[in-house]
Write a structure and sequence with these properties.
five-stranded antiparallel beta sheet; 12 helices; Arc Repressor Mutant, subunit A; three-stranded antiparallel beta sheet
């Protein structure tokens, strides 16, 4: 499909401020990320669907993102659209009527939010679309077009609130959901896998399976991310000493906290606290003077990420 610029399933570790020559849709299967669109920060969590339009400068606030896995597709619209548009056109081979394009583009252009909770349908459609694009059978293009149409329609339903989350959780999944709330409120507690499993009344192997399904992470990975997010919040919004933040977030020592924090974010806690107070003049310049990333640059970037 000539309209497709890039696609793949990878860990996103490179998201410098940029604009794309098309519409980008990303399903975050795993991770907790801090992304920004047109100067507005949005927290992107596991199970989120995220989109941007050609004129929207977007990227990450952190030079190094924590562990994550995303399903990504970037495709050309009818034009590059370098400036904001209330309506725009999709490629003809997607088969949308003029009325349908008006409906879809109006919803996407007017949305102030770019990150939403993905529905069960979207969680299935994005991997299926990327898998089809990576295949080589005779009807690959036709099936990919059908799946991309479905992704766009489902995204419109998610943005407008029309989509219904029909995910039916069984008993053990409901127990783990309750545990997730407990972990969020008590991430400083020294949880063990045994304690988590006992809290849910299930075996540790079952606990791991359900965690992977609901969060895309193992229990301990998820707990680690909660601690990181709590630490970031305290660094941004309070003047609490770093050593106190370490203990409040469940780390055994300030040194272990500092090492872990730098490994995840690429910055020390002190650097993050300074950085989080606002973008520097040089960083603001990067965000304000951004040109389109070329198709070739995008392909090279995705290739690097896919190989890592």
């Amino acid at each position: 499909m000539k309209e497709i610029i890039s696609y793949g399933h990878f860990r996103c570790t490179d998201l410098a401020p940029h604009k794309n020559r098309g519409m980008e849709i990303t399903y975050v299967e795993k991770g907790m990320l801090e992304w920004m669109v047109e100067g507005t920060q949005e927290k992107v969590e596991s199970g989120s669907i995220f989109f941007t339009l050609p004129w929207q400068v977007h990227g990450s606030l952190n030079p190094k993102e924590p562990d994550n896995q995303v399903w990504h597709i970037l495709f050309h619209l009818k034009e590059d659209y370098p400036r904001p548009r209330k309506q725009f056109r999709f490629p003809e081979n997607l088969g949308f009527s003029t009325k349908e394009m008006k409906t879809l583009s109006s919803v996407f252009s007017s949305s102030a939010q770019h990150c939403f909770s993905a529905t069960p349908a979207m969680r299935q459609l994005m991997p299926e679309l990327i898998g089809e694009l990576q295949s080589s059978h005779d009807l690959r293009a036709a099936h990919s077009i059908s799946l991309l149409r479905m992704v766009l329609v489902e995204l419109k339903r998610i943005v407008t609130g029309e989509a219904v989350n029909t995910d039916n959780h069984n008993w053990s999944e409901k127990k783990v959901q309750s545990l997730l709330a407990q972990l969020s409120s008590n991430c400083d507690q020294q949880w063990t896998l045994r304690e988590m499993a006992e809290h849910c009344g299930i075996q540790r192997t079952r606990l791991n399976t359900v965690f992977q399904k609901l969060t895309g992470s193992t229990p301990m990975e998820y707990l680690g991310r909660l601690r990181m997010e709590r630490a970031k919040t305290l660094l941004r919004e309070t003047d609490i000493k770093i050593i106190d933040i370490a203990f409040e977030c469940g780390f055994s020592s300030s040194q272990y906290f500092a090492n872990t924090f730098k490994n995840v974010t690429g910055m020390t806690p002190s650097q993050y606290r300074t950085h989080a107070t606002g973008l520097t003049e040089a960083e603001l310049k990067k965000w304000s003077n951004v040109d389109f990333r070329s198709d070739q640059e995008e392909l090279q970037r995705i290739q690097r990420l896919t190989e890592n």
